[in-house]
Amino acid sequence: xxxxxxxxxxxxxxxxxxxxxxxxxxxxxxxxxxxxxxxxxxxxxxxxxxxxxxxxxxxxxxxxxxxxxxxxxxxxxxxxxxxxxxxxxxxxxxxxxxxxxxxxxxxxxxxxxxxxxxxxxxxxxxxxxxxxxxxxxxxxxxxxxxxxxxxxxxxxxxxxxxxxxxxxxxxxxxxxxxxxxxxxxxxxxxxxxxxxxxxxxxxxxxxxxxxxxxxxxxxxxxxxxxxxxxxxxxxxxxxxxxxxxxxxxxxxxxxxxxxxxxxxxxxxxxxxxxxxxxxxxxxxxxxxxx
Length: 290
Hints:
CATH topology of the largest domain: Dna Topoisomerase Vi A Subunit, Chain: A, domain 2
Number of helices: 8
Order of helices and strands: EEEEEEEHHHEEEEHEHEHEHEH
Helix content: 10-25%
Organism: Algibacter mikhailovii
Structural class: alpha+beta
InterPro entries: DUF6371, Zinc_ribbon_put
Protein name: Toprim domain-containing protein
Number of strands: 15
């Protein structure tokens, strides 16, 4: 398989700049891979994919290196002991405290064990969403900090999101993600219904509310792709995009149908009177409070 490196690419570091359109410090700039310098300050992409959508691509981007000159790097895996260790102080976790406002400790504990929810002291009360694939390889751990009352991600004074291999300072870690929760696939027979949302938080929330289905999360809307869905080829898949994202995910579902997936996309949230970008968990929280 031929693989190319492009002259310009989005910066892969955690550094963020102020977006020229929305004014939030969530802007990722393009770099010149031949000099490792940033391009003009307005050339980049806003991380607020749903709300801002600013993406100014550089002109003249072309491949500069062929895979015939590059050794393919194997994806890295983490030790499962790290997953187990992270679950020891889980009651100190902000996300768990949020869930306990709506569900019993027994329900939340079952969700913790099912999804390997961990706690991380990188930020006090932060959560680790471990990505464990269908072969029980620990592919990654996404670290996020939530408000324990609202259940919203903490984004001020900066977005509190990181990867556990960066927290552990593991050099040369080759990240290859999988769908969050897909390690549970062994408990569901082929032909079963699998529901996919974007947010890990929502997958966990829905697994408590609707336990008959396997709930998985992409982690970002761009992760809805055939490579990550490949283990689900024999399952019936229902997508539940965030509000305003139906058109994008439905287009991807149409392509995935052509690739042999049994997949449909729900427009459930599009006609609901909820804020743009809201998801199933947000909708249900309103119902539970009322």
